[in-house]
Amino acid sequence: MNKIALFVPVLALSLAACGEEPAPEPAPVQTPEPAPEPSLPAPNQELFSGLLAEACPELKPVNTAVCKRAGFGSSDVICEYGLGEDSYLRNKATLTPGEGEWTLADPASICAPGAA
Hints:
The chain is of the alpha+beta class and 116 residues long. Helix content is 28%, strand content 22%. Keywords: Signal.
């Protein structure tokens, strides 16, 4: 019995020593960079209506408008709109980013008689 009594503590110490390995260093956590904030707000019907009314005061007010990016990677926006009582998107205008604001790309052709 003495042999077993001596063997158990030695076995326990040897097993305890096996679990004493140093913990691996934690991997450095990369913090994601914040997404860049858009410099201009997305154009909506209210913004487009204001720009068109300012550039072409003789036109009827915008009844409805939908603005979409001109294409992948393009900074221009194409707005289709209806004037006055017209609820159909019969007209088109292009907005381009200017100095901190959206501007109409070609107001002379948009405001020309018969263009809208």
